[in-house]
Amino acid sequence: MEPNRVQFLENKTLLITGASGFLSKVLVERVLSLQPNVKKLYLLVRASDNKSAEQRLHNEVFEKDLFKVLRKNIGDESLNALISEKVVPVPGDITLNNMGVSDFNLLQDMMQEIDIVFHAAATTRFDERYDVALRINTFGALNVLNFAKKSVKAQLLLHVSTAYVCGERSGLIQEIPFAMGETLHGKNKVDINTEMQLVEQRLEQLAEQGCSEEETKHAMRDLGLKRAKLFGWSNTYSFTKVMGEMFVGHYRGNMPIVIIRPTMITSTFSDPFPGWIEGVKTVDTVIVSYGKGMLKCFLVDKKTACDIIPVDMVANAMIATAAEHFHDSGSHTIYHVASSYRNPIMYKQIKEISIRYFKKSPLLGRSGMPIVPKAPLLLSTKAMFRLYTSLRFKLPLQVLGLLSITFPSQFGNNYQHHNREFKMAMRLVKLYKPYLLFKGVFDDRNLETLRIKNEAKEMNDLPAFSPKCIDWEDYFINTHIPGLATHVLNK
Ligand SMILES: NC(=O)c1ccc[n+]([C@@H]2O[C@H](COP(=O)([O-])OP(=O)(O)OC[C@H]3O[C@@H](n4cnc5c(N)ncnc54)[C@H](OP(=O)(O)O)[C@@H]3O)[C@@H](O)[C@H]2O)c1
């Protein structure tokens, strides 16, 4: 008889990359809470030596509120004992061969013992420097795969990608892999090694021209966006992530591969407690800017779904899919972890819910007074957004700019206020446009099939990972926005 999904982790040794990141630390908490009889957790973090890796894990993972339930349930002492017995801090860097693990004995132990590799480390900046994103998201994925292949016992690499590797598409988006070199417009193939050579040549040129660090950073950011667009992707992040998927799929050999493609990850739905979150990304940037009274208008298609998925559901899905494909020689399976197909929430609803939330529970401004934000105007096309911003901000901005020089005390504040609002709206729109105007729906048939199979075999000892059970209104009002206020804005 097959073991249950959680039972499966018993006596297994796992490597988790990106351990200091949002998703991985939830995975670590889930594993230790659900299966304390896991054999060992090798947690890879960027650090110069063992001591600083251990320090980072202590400060950035185990000391977080995320662990308060486990701490309360088993007590401080037992949790500390569990961590020192099971957790091995690994100082490393995935851009390097052997993931930068330089301690020979540690490397040998890892290669002898690891059963499953969970690879979630990445740079998640949409407009990251091309050299940085290519090294981490693309070649880093290859380094992790090579490490997994060299490990004697490893029987699965679970690689975390993103649903938006599909580019700006519409209709139902299926869970299919990308072939090596495939592009979105089907024209000229992308050669990943040539991309790296291009990056190195450009860096040499910039050095020869005596460019400053700042100039080099801008040039490398521009290069990433240019190359991404050339092959059909809208930003450097999704382009370098898709090339990471290509490497992993193409060079996998007999190593079973699971590629998890989450959409926008939000706060915990229920485990270890509702509403835990770290950092402000994608749709949350918009919600927080609105709550702070800094968002007057925005570019978004109200009628489209905003595909978000709570982080604990992603972590649970990672455990369930790992259990399913462990030992599944040479398999290559893609899982969308998404909500837009089974239980969509529309941008229009998020706007209405956020207005209601901040009306009832406003954020406090610097003066300690409640901020009363006005309902933002949602514009659904780039042309409308450009027209609106030029009328609302640009023309008055020029006039106000002149007036503020002549009469600084009367007009200076007004000018600065408009300027801030304008810059905020433009920055958010520029970064998140591909997500906000996204017309596609992510088919999550593979995960749904797995859920049904688990239920039929009564193997469902994992907490929920189906978006069907989410009441979005309740989640936003009682879990997610309060979670942002407490854990991110510290209100
Ligand atoms: N968050 C989302 O909404 C979302 C949605 C879809 C997919 N994803 C994917 O989910 C995964 C996790 O995302 P996240 O939100 O948890 O990201 P995150 O919070 O930014 O964490 C990224 C982690 O990767 C580590 N990392 C970066 N470069 C590294 C390197 N060279 N060597 C070793 N570690 C490195 C970071 O370490 P440092 O602490 O040293 O920087 C950090 O621990 C990523 O693969 C991402 O693409 C995320």
UniProtKB/TrEMBL annotation:
The keyword Lipid metabolism applies. The keyword Transmembrane helix does not apply. Its EC number is 1.2.1.84. One of its GO terms (biological process) is long-chain fatty-acyl-CoA metabolic process. InterPro entries: FAR (IPR026055), FAR_C (IPR033640), FAR_NAD-bd (IPR013120), NAD(P)-bd_dom_sf (IPR036291). Belongs to the fatty acyl-CoA reductase family. Residues 16-318 form the Thioester reductase (TE) domain. It comes from the Eukaryota. This is Fatty acyl-CoA reductase. Residues 395-490 form the Fatty acyl-CoA reductase C-terminal domain. One of its GO terms (molecular function) is alcohol-forming long-chain fatty acyl-CoA reductase activity. Catalyzes the reduction of fatty acyl-CoA to fatty alcohols. Keywords: Lipid biosynthesis, Lipid metabolism, NADP, Oxidoreductase. It catalyses: a long-chain fatty acyl-CoA + 2 NADPH + 2 H(+) = a long-chain primary fatty alcohol + 2 NADP(+) + CoA.
